[in-house]
Amino acid sequence: MQTVLFHLLFCVALSFHFCPELLKTNMFKFDFRVDECDKDDNFNDTFYQKDSPSCLYQEETSSLNCHEATEILPSQSILDNIDVYCLQCHTKILKNVCISHLSGGFLLEDIRNASNSDIKKAHEQHSDLVPGVYEGGAKIWECTDDVLNFMAEKYSQDWWTRKRVLDLGCGAGLLGIYAYKQGARVDFQDYNKDVLQEITIPNLLINITEQIPLEEVFENVKFYSGDWSKWTEFCKGSYIYDVILTSETIYNPRNQEKLLRCLKDKLKLNGVVILAAKTHYFGVGGGLHQFEALLNSEKCFDYQIVWTSCEGVSRQILLLTRRR
């Protein structure tokens, strides 16, 4: 029996030696979950092998020219197609509100037809991240659902009323849309203007009732793209926020300090940050323990873990408040 087992292990090792692709396949990945209705086999949700652009993220990011910051306005074509978007959406039902969002297949078809889209570049490379180009905003990642459920259970609608909220690294924008539907004024920020134009803004519009004029809507929401440090400078002297929502934004260790500076610059003295993430992001290097060590080192925020899931890779929600 031992001889057979030894022979089998030897053959497996030999296969990896002469065919290293076997060892690489699916080794490095986010281990995220997306909504089953949104999942598309053509837009892979793994981090691929080590040689792929996704897994070179850490090494390449520091030498890249990051996207400049700008305000994004809804285009007329988006406004003209609200009815079409409403026919191509799915709905999340929470305790006290329903949130609709575009389906992944419908989005992917638009992406294929785009001429110079950052999302298209990622799709062509079969990657969820392209360093300095695209930051994964086309998907709804697992921790977004965690935060939505947490907020629905913890905060009443009155808590949100008249608060100014930032959805930082918003992607599909579901966290900010939830806050808006609860009565908050919301700014949406994402690295990619394509994500805001093709996903976030349509998602917001399909959640607006016909009784509310669009002029009133856009008085209470704003959209900004660009690198966090450049966006903070772009918005210097403007609003600071009662609540900052951010989910799955600490996966890249090189950006964690940049994120923390953004939180320090944009949170009110008595404000709160609701941050959700995994304890570790395989193939990228970041994670909650690393970010908590940064918080402890900087000593600018107190934080508490208010929710934990140990299914698969552990996920947590942190509440951050300014240290007095």
UniProtKB/TrEMBL annotation:
InterPro entries (alphabetical): Methyltransf_16, SAM-dependent_MTases_sf
Main localization, broad class: cytoplasm
One GO cellular component term noted in the UniProt record for this chain: nucleus
SUPFAM superfamilies for this protein: S-adenosyl-L-methionine-dependent methyltransferases
Top-level division of the source organism's lineage: Eukaryota
A Pfam family of this chain: Methyltransf_16
E.C. numbers: 2.1.1.85
Signal peptide positions (record): 1-15
Keywords, alphabetical: Cytoplasm, Methyltransferase, Nucleus, S-adenosyl-L-methionine, Signal, Transferase
Cellular localization per UniProt: Cytoplasm; Nucleus
MF terms in GO: protein-L-histidine N-tele-methyltransferase activity
An example Gene Ontology biological process: methylation
Family note: Belongs to the methyltransferase superfamily. METTL18 family.
Protein name in the entry: protein-histidine N-methyltransferase
Organism: Glossina palpalis gambiensis
